[in-house]
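Message: I would love a firmer grasp of how sequence relates to backbone shape in proteins. Thank you; the sequence and its tokens follow:
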Amino acid sequence: MNDRDIAAVGNKNPEEHSVLLDCCGGLNNLDYSKMDLTLMQELMKCINLRDSNFCIAVLAIFFNPLFWNVVARWEHRTRRLSRLFGSAYLACYCLGFVIILLNVYRSHSMTVVMKSQARWDVLERTEVFYAGAALIVLGTVLVVSSFLALGFTGTFLGDYFGILMDDKVTGFPFNITDNPMYWGSTANYLGLALIGASPVGLVLTAFVAVVYSVAITFEGPFTEQIYAERIHHSKHE
């Protein structure tokens, strides 16, 4: 406790003072060395972080969102791809096709690691298998319904090519989450990891979730800026 905390304690009545000191004392006297880390140790024993396939999968996970964000922002600033292909739509379709190929490769690289590394007996349970299957169904529903709601250009960064939607999509699945495509993909990977009883799959899925979370912090405000610019230009026309 610092001096400010002590001063605050001094202003409380004796009973509150005693309870607070007991709580703080309990936290300070907690012996973290006695915590049971057996499960975490068993998990890490099943994962080979030096596996080249693991490193490739991690690189694919980090590279994909970085690639499409950099390229799309470059296109938004310069319109180079649109001029190169002679059409904003054609340029968007080509970038979308590349993104699909990159995501297929990422999924393949993750699957290779899951199959090549050890399974975890803690996950070798019927209920875990069914939970994984349920996550895959949920993830597929989110991804497919998101694609149907946005269309190809809406899904694959058409906003950055100047292909803007008339109105914000607010129906399913966007009434559940703002980024159903990302979280649906994450649910699919988690489901595959559970079905395969793959500890390395759990770790890779955590990487996917972190990378998507970071991507969202950049993509969301930038997309809002694009639409704000359209409103600004329309008011001055």
Notes: The CA atoms of residues 8 and 17 lie 9 Å apart. Confidence is low (pLDDT under 50) at residues 1-12, 19-24.
